[in-house]
Amino acid sequence: MEFQDYYKILGVERAATADQVKTAYRRLARKFHPDVSKEANAEARFKQVQEAYEVLKDPEKRAAYDQLGSEWKSGQQFRPPPDWGSDFEFSGGGARPRRGRRAAAGDGEFTEGEFSDFFSSLFGGASPFAGGGAGPARAGRDHHARVDIDLGEAFRGTTRTLELRRPEVTADGHVQLHAHTVRVNIPAGVTEGQLVRLAGQGDPAAGNRPAGDLYLEVHIVPDKLYQLDGRDVTLTFPVAPWEAALGASVTVPTLGGPVQMSIPAGSQSGQKLRLRGRGLPGQPPGDEYVQLKVVLPPAGTPEARALYEQMRSQLAFDPRADFAR
Amino acid sequence: MARVMQLLEARVVGEGDWIAAAEICQMCRIEQSALLELADLGVVAGRHTYTGWQVAASALPRVRVAGRLMRDLGINVSGAALALELLEARQALESRIRDLERLTGGH
């Protein structure tokens, strides 16, 4: 596994005070927070920053980490020393056993609270950021993960393969991670930011208490053709000037396949026409808005040029008539 | 390590109109007092029923983002509410820009 230089990640000196560490974390968290940031690789950077802060804010973990020495550089191959942990008793989150809980991971997608192998090998346990929160204390811990799907998948429904890792106590009292792979059916009609729940796929609980759930937060990647707003989609649809002026019957793509649509005579560029119920399915289903974009034919041939000249001479048309004079 | 392939059916949370406050707090990892404050600030719509306090299901993504912002950035409920409004305003403007770029043939 690769060594993580937590001081470098937070951009602080090894002698930084707790306040300096906190300030550095807050600054970087604001910069890379996935809900806020437009930076490239914001999610990966944010996880690194969270992990570094988790260690450096905790005096016990920080002291233990410091004992590794200052010669290590980020990215160097690393193994914990054989006597690692003999002098420390981590009382905070992430107590031993070292190979503790990890959130569910799926298709390499962002999983809240999953820290690096480096962190796990040193401190065990998953991030407190992945905690079960305000839920009933007696139930197993819930897990949260993110899943990215495209608009077509949101319309039709889709499946994803997820690798779930759960801690299980062995007969001799040790905790081992048990991995299993599941296929998840994500129903049609999910919208941006919506949660889907996989009941009982979180951490198990002791005794007869219920296991936690796995929540997948759905994100729909931007589509080349459509813009999504809730369950509604907007399509920019190029039309010829005569189609807009005279009206036309045209074939328009929709998520469910092409449909015929009438463009009323006298339409303008930017005008929106609604195809009811042609957005994402739901109760009620969304609509598709077709936004007309009038495209001018080039005056590249003598015939085209003659037609434009004929319009200029015969149409009393001033596109700037509304300008104040 | 044994691997077992299972096929699981995911259920969309909040298909109904309203969700119990306790449930939304668990899903969004947010304290109930913070949820009530978000409702007071108009960030989420809430209502009292004979079974308890409920929140509009449509607010779920907003509450999750608010919860993350509070946990990760150390901001209070008012700060999270303000950040949410600004983020949504930015999103609306970006959407509008993309809309106009498509209309004008820009990038």
Topology overview:
The complex is a heterodimer of chains A (325) and B (107).
Chain A: H1 6-10, H2 18-32, H3 42-56, H4 59-66, H5 117-123, E1 143-149, H6 151-156, E2 158-169, E3 175-186, E4 195-198, E5 214-220, E6 226-229, E7 232-239, H7 241-246, E8 248-252, E9 259-263, E10 272-275, E11 288-294, H8 302-314
Parallel strand pairs in A: 1-5, 7-11
Antiparallel strand pairs in A: 2-3, 4-5, 6-7, 8-9, 10-11
Chain B: E1 6-9, E2 11-12, E3 18-20, H1 21-28, H2 32-40, E4 46-49, E5 52-56, H3 60-73, H4 77-104
Antiparallel strand pairs in B: 3-5, 4-5
Any overview of this molecule?
The complex is a heterodimer of chains A (325) and B (107). Chain A is an alpha+beta fold and 325 residues long. In chain A, 23% of the residues lie in helices and 23% in strands. Chain A has helices at 6-10, 18-32, 42-56, 59-66, 117-123, 151-156, 241-246, 302-314; strands at residues 143-149, 158-169, 175-186, 195-198, 214-220, 226-229, 232-239, 248-252, 259-263, 272-275, 288-294. In chain A, the strands form 4 sheets. In chain A, strands 6-7-11-10 form a 4-stranded mixed sheet. In chain A, β2 and β3 (175-186) form a beta hairpin. In chain A, α2 packs antiparallel against α3. The longest helix of chain A has 15 residues, at 18-32. Chain B has a 3-stranded antiparallel sheet with strand order 3-5-4. In chain B, a hairpin with a 2-residue loop joins β4 and β5. The termini of chain B are far apart. The model of chain B has no long low-confidence stretch (mean pLDDT 85). Classes of the chains: A alpha+beta (325), B alpha+beta (107).
Please name the defining characteristics of this protein.
heterodimer, A: 325 residues, alpha+beta, 4-stranded mixed beta sheet, 3-stranded mixed beta sheet, elongated, B: 107 residues, 3-stranded antiparallel beta sheet, 4 helices, 55% helix, globular
